[in-house]
Write a structure and sequence with these properties.
Blueprint lengths: L1 H31 L5 H22 L24 H12 L5 H6 L5 H33 L2 H8 L3 H29 L8 H20 L7 H4 L7 H19 L8 H20 L5 H33 L2
Length: about 325
């Protein structure tokens, strides 16, 4: 029974985490390359994933989470109620709510002290993302995000450069996101993976990614598509680079897991405010509505996470 919970938990967590979170990193990539066949995009992302996974496995003594699970040991007994968290995440993802997988999945296995650290790191990450994106786009919006500059890009030879730059920024961001979120995917498996478990897990993850790429992201993708100019390849490149740098500089500051969802929503929020302030005659009403809607969704996810952790704690105390 315990082995069944372990492997079913991993599969459910992998599908739910990737389905919910992958759009943060590959959403703009999928949107701006909508004319490229999904198998090409999938193969590119898969190669980066396998490389990042193998690097962590080799240099962290079999721990593919890059030590993010160091203070989250695998329970001695895995009962069925641990599956409530990934099942709930799966349902929420299908609805289209960008819940924080870090809170929902890892909180079930974590101490209260570590949960508090995860929440604080995520809140600071959100604030840093909003401010950083807002300042950045105040400086570059007129140059890169105006309709005139985008039309000029379409008619120039610069597009090839930006295509290459976007694929490069996607590779950087995708690797940094994986370093943060491998913990959410692999929390059900032993911290020192054997070769066969590693290979099997890679096969499962790549199959899940193929399904998501074939569906072009699914319901969660709407969060990216609703934002200004995200279909433009230059805009997508700048978003990815900004997001990747924050994960690299702030996310790797320590090994405490953090919500990449909150960071992503923060970047889109700061960007949306700056662009509408500079380019749309300070018409911020629609921006605030979108931002409030996204922020409400992630807070609903946090509330659901807390409720599920509470329910599982009740099961733990039952005889």
């Amino acid at each position: 029974m315990e082995l069944l919970v372990l492997y079913v938990g991993f599969i459910l967590a992998a599908y739910a985490v990737i389905g919910n979170d992958v759009i943060q990193t590959l959403g703009t990539f999928l949107t701006s390359n909508n004319k490229t066949h999904w198998t090409v995009l999938w193969a590119y992302a898969s190669a980066i994933l396998v490389g990042t996974l193998l690097y962590g496995w080799c240099f962290y003594n079999g721990d593919v989470s890059y030590d993010r699970l160091d203070k989250i040991p695998l329970p001695e007994t895995l009962n069925w109620w641990y599956l409530i968290a990934p099942l709930s995440l799966l349902i929420i993802t299908r609805i289209g709510i960008p819940v924080s997988t870090t809170f929902l999945i890892l909180s079930v296995f974590s101490s209260q002290q570590l949960i508090e650290k995860m929440v604080m790191k995520s809140v600071y990450g959100y604030a840093l993302s909003v401010v950083s994106a807002f300042v950045l786009y105040l400086l570059i919006a007129k140059l890169f995000e105006s309709k005139k500059s985008i039309d000029k890009l379409e008619q120039s030879n610069q597009k090839k450069f930006w295509i290459a730059a976007q694929w490069g920024s996607t590779a950087f961001l995708w690797s940094q996101w994986l370093i943060q979120d491998f913990a959410n995917i692999y929390v059900f498996l032993p911290r020192d993976l054997s070769v066969w478990v590693l290979v099997g897990s890679i096969v499962v993850i790549l199959l899940i990614m193929a399904l998501i790429f074939k569906n072009r992201g699914g319901k969660i993708q709407e969060i990216v598509n609703q934002k200004v100019n995200t279909r433009n390849i230059r805009s997508a490149t700048i978003i990815d680079l900004c997001y990747g740098l924050i994960l690299f500089l702030y996310g790797n500051y320590n090994s405490v897991p953090m919500s990449t969802t909150w960071t992503f929503i923060g970047i889109l929020a700061g960007r949306e405010i700056a662009i509408n302030y500079l380019l749309n005659n300070k018409q911020l009403k629609n921006s605030y509505k979108l931002i409030a809607k996204d922020f409400a969704k992630v807070n609903i996810g946090l509330a659901v996470s807390i409720f599920i952790v509470y329910v599982i704690q009740l099961f733990k105390t039952m005889p």
